[in-house]
Amino acid sequence: xxxxxxxxxxxxxxxxxxxxxxxxxxxxxxxxxxxxxxxxxxxxxxxxxxxxxxxxxxxxxxxxxxxxxxxxxxxxxxxxxxxxxxxxxxxxxxxxxxxxxxxxxxxxxxxxxxxxxxxxxxxxxxxxxxxxxxxxxxxxxxxxxxxxxxxxxxxxxxxxxxxxxxxxxxxxxxxxxxxxxxxxxxxxxxxxxxxxxxxxxxxxxxxxxxxxxxxxxxxxxxxxxxxxxxxxxxxxxxxxxxxxxxxxxxxxxxx
Length: 255
Hints:
- The protein is 78% helix and 0% strand.
- By secondary structure, it is an all-alpha fold.
- It has one domain.
- Helix 3 (73-89) runs antiparallel to helix 4 and helix 4 (97-125) packs parallel to helix 8.
């Protein structure tokens, strides 16, 4: 019995190289998208390139607002509503794709202007908070995106019903908190929204793949879906970090 165990141990140990890595392990398997059809892979490249462009436009909107060039968050909200409705009302084709991208860029710019006051508050409390929130958001978004893309079975599509129920609960909690002004309800809404933001990344990513397989190649619309998920995740992480920083500051003052 002991000889068999020892033999199995040394056989398993011999599978590892001198650098401590398994002979069968290959980092490229983490980015193996061969299960996706070629047209879907090309579509995803366009989606994430468009998403990166929208993120840069939102960053520009934050900078414009914080420098005082256009510091009107309420007007930015109305602007984002108008451009987003205009975007979804257009048929996506070769003639309109540039216009669709311009409308998405404008929407992202307005959203950046809208969230800039929150970022400014976080900077005043601790300049490291927005940077930390950005890094955490990027890490979480990449991890959940890879999880959705590398899963062959589209099981995350079943999250749609749960996410719809969660959205209804969040809406109810927000309405109740208008009158209750409860910190407990606020925290419940905040953390539930954080979980839902992660769920929507999984759901929307696989939904984009399914729609691309069905012939829907509107990469601007699909990138916009992921952009909203990304912004929602970033804002909630930023609020949580800001809330914790203020709580720690109060504790330090009371000592």
